[in-house]
């Protein structure tokens, strides 16, 4: 009888043994979890690079069908709004990335969105950015936003400006604006910039509006794609050390870029940072050569 009771007792765990097992499991989780997070981040970063290459494939196809012209540019004179795909202001217009949509080159719209983005207005079919490319009314500011920056200027940094006022009659892709004045200069675009002139210029990139935008997406840097179809990783530190100290803003006006200028950018900085945004594109171009 005593032997049987001892045998029964030995089939279970004591409280101490249970706590030891729980402790071991907790230690294993603490070891494995960071590795899983790193693997997930690496996979998202790789998917982001793949997205950028796919976007450049669309640009190459568009160029081959349109006398080497490519769709670059930004809305109005604000280099930060180069991610706009569609907008509603009376009629619907499709600047920049939106031209690729209207040309039926976009096989899957998710390719225009980084899997690491956590702001809904730059995510695919999310709150404030519902996938309504033919009428984005109701989205934030009635825009449909992509999750990437499109190059806002040509190879010589002359801006490609899309109309930012109430559009004229008729629907369809609005061409870059003719005779739009910015910084005392009038810019005319006929035709689009040509792919053959871009060589190894940077064309599409993760949104680098400010340091916080970079950290929340890929933490230590961002991805960029070039005119030849290649794509690569750019370390965040290059924005502290490698920006040009002076740019010809809009290709015409000499403008100083103070040391550490990128770190002055905030979530609310907008149209007054065009010289810093251009400096980043110029730095990326130098990396591509």
Give an account of the 3D structure.
This protein has 289 residues and is an alpha+beta fold. It has one domain (39-288). The chain has helices spanning 2-9, 15-65, 97-102, 211-218, 238-241, 274-288, and strands at residues 74-75, 84-89, 91-93, 143-145, 148-150, 161-162, 180-182, 185-187, 202-206, 221-226, 231-235, 246-249, 253-256. A 4-stranded antiparallel sheet has the order 5-9-10-11. The longest helix is centred in the N-terminal third of the chain and has 51 residues, at 15-65.
Query: Outline, from the CA principal axes?
Result: globular
Provide a count of the helices: 6
Low-confidence stretches: 165-173
| Proportion in β-strands | 15-25%
Average pLDDT value? 84
Helix share bin: 25-40%
Counted up, domains total 1
Number of strands: 13
- Termini Cα gap: 87 Å
Q: What is the H/E string? A: HHEEEHEEEEEEHEEHEEH
Radius of gyration: 25 Å
User: Largest beta sheet: what is the strand line-up?
Assistant: 5-9-10-11
